[in-house]
Amino acid sequence: MHFSSLRQKSEFREIIPYSKGEILTNSTHPSSYYVTWFHVVFSAASTISIKIDGVKDFTYEEMKLATNNFNVSTQVGQGGYGKVYKGILADGTVVAIKRAQEGSLQGEKEFLTEIELLSRVHHRNLVSLIGYCDDEGEQMLVYEFMSNHTLRDQLSGKSKEPLSFAMRLKIALGSAKGILYLHTEADPPIFHRDIKASNILLDSKLTAKVADFGLSRLAPVPDMEGAVAAHVSTVVRGTPGYLDPEYFLTHKLTDKSDVYSIGVVFLELLTGMQPISHGKNIVREVTVAYSSGMIFSVIDERMGSYPSDCVEKFLSLALKCCQEETDARPSMAEVVRQLESIWLMMPQSDTKTTESSDKDPEIAVTSQPSSSIVKNPYVSSDVSGSELVSGVVPTITPR
Ligand SMILES: Nc1ncnc2c1ncn2[C@@H]1O[C@H](COP(=O)(O)OP(=O)(O)OP(=O)(O)O)[C@@H](O)[C@H]1O
Ligand SMILES: [Mg+2]
């Protein structure tokens, strides 16, 4: 049975229990409610079990009202999945509504995968899923709205003020923390598979939030011996320019594929270039400049003055992430540690990125070194996603 056909029939809310589980609903809300968990049958041949917790199920009518009947003036973008609208819910919450287009390549299965994944991952550097709509033959995803658009938009010069180096470093650190959380704290771990500048969104305070888990696959779970078999897939997913060359060749997905992609994003942050432009590849271009000692020739002039030692270290880290060989790339934990150590090297005057940057958890580091300059970038104790967001670790006041 088809999911949407199930949903269209009133029996959907009454199927209790289903053979492999049950549907529990809170029917106190007349038009929408929270689904505790349920099982969905796709076809006679396949059964998909989805657990959804705390994610709101919107009606088509509610989506229509939020967007003034999907008025073109509320449209903020378009991606492979479909159009994206800015909506205002009945309670005043501003949201981004992703409306699946007919014949969208990302089908029903990805729709449900995204809901399921997002409903159980929560981190300040990941875009929150507020709810979804599967009604009247339509599918939509409802996210928190990011008023400063995507990192790609910011780097393309669409915003009035170009990002300073400190802001770029902060965005890099936030994005890395979000991905680290997916790799180390999500259970089972999640590899994003489509990290790119247009999937890093910025909120009103320019806090970076990683978006779009529709392409994610759950990472393999270790077997009895503790060995983790690399995920082998027949289909390579991702975006040209960001795609890990080893994953492309072998179809083996590892955490280092996301490391490669975020490395490309770091290069974009430093140079303002696109991953591929006029037939040139950003990794190759920056590698050539680096090898010939010309790194400052590729740095984005729009960021104004910057501490050259920090820029050099950030660029060297970005290139390490983009090594062809998987093993030569750092892990996300190492990436976060190194970015933190670069942050600590910044002159204090440069690190006032927001009004309350001293209290900004974005730049709270994982351990407090005795000196404000970290000599060894690996001094931090073991980094994990939860430590990074707990707020327990004190913020370092930069020198
Ligand atoms: N949560 C959000 N808040 C504000 N704007 C958003 C949000 N999500 C998406 N957008 C806007 O919608 C646009 C399209 O997003 P979408 O994820 O559909 O496509 P994409 O990331 O550009 O490409 P792809 O289809 O490969 O994912 C984005 O570029 C952004 O401008
Ligand atoms: Mg996207």
Automatic annotation (TrEMBL):
Which stretches does the entry tag as region Disordered? 349-372
> Which sequence ranges form a coiled-coil region, renumbered to this chain?
none
CDD domains listed in its UniProt record: STKc_IRAK
Q: Binding positions for ATP?
A: 98
Q: Where is the Protein kinase domain?
A: 70-344
Classification via SUPFAM superfamilies: Protein kinase-like (PK-like)
Predominantly, its location class is: membrane
The record describes its membrane topology as:
Single-pass type I membrane protein
GO (cellular component) term, any one: membrane
Pfam families noted in UniProt? Pkinase (PF00069)
Recorded GO molecular functions are: ATP binding; protein serine/threonine kinase activity
Q: Biased-composition ranges for Basic and acidic residues?
A: 352-362
Tagged with keyword Transmembrane: yes
Known EC number? 2.7.11.1
Question: How would you classify this enzyme at the top EC level?
Answer: transferase
Record localization: Membrane
The domain of life for this entry's organism is Eukaryota
Q: Cite the entry's keywords alphabetically.
A: ATP-binding, Glycoprotein, Kinase, Leucine-rich repeat, Membrane, Nucleotide-binding, Receptor, Repeat, Serine/threonine-protein kinase, Signal, Transferase, Transmembrane, Transmembrane helix
In the UniProt record, does the keyword Repeat occur?
yes
What the entry lists under InterPro entries is as follows: Kinase-like_dom_sf, Prot_kinase_dom, Protein_kinase_ATP_BS, Ser/Thr_kinase_AS
Family statement drawn from the similarity comment of this UniProt entry = Belongs to the protein kinase superfamily.
What protein is this chain from?
non-specific serine/threonine protein kinase
Q: Which organism was this protein described from?
A: Ilex paraguariensis
